[in-house]
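During the reporting period the student researcher (J.K.) took over the structure-prediction task from the postdoctoral fellow and processed the backlog of single-chain submissions. One of the processed entries is reproduced below for the supervisory committee.
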Amino acid sequence: MSGYNPEGCPAMDKPEILRLRHHLCCFGKLLNSVMLSIGIIILGSGIVSCVNKTANDPEGEKQVTAKTIEEVLKEHTEELMSLPGVVGTAQGLCDDKPCIKVYVIKKTSELDQEIPDIIEGYRIMIEETGEIQALPENQH
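J.K. obtained the following structure tokens:
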């Protein structure tokens, strides 16, 4: 016997078979290299997509804030209340996520433009309530 023959077949020692095995081995290495490259490209594009979606999310729902909603509301209520037509602010839930509610006498396009959609990562919801007045002392 002249050479390694795992199956016990004498044809495995022929030069054509050895050349074929060599080509198959090279093809296998090439295929592994191509598959690895494709995997890296897919992973990289997925990461870039996630980063772009977070940075460019128009509703800001993916933005992360280091402050609690209570802190953000406390810091921005005075500014929001200074807008004509705004009668209150509150913490609320919008689509089961914390948001800031801004109560207005009448919802107008001017208020829609003046009140931001997002403050420090929290979505803003404008709600029309009409005038809000305190109850007289004897009705508390």
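The committee noted the following: The chain is about 45% helix and 20% strand.
J.K. will present the remaining backlog at the next meeting.
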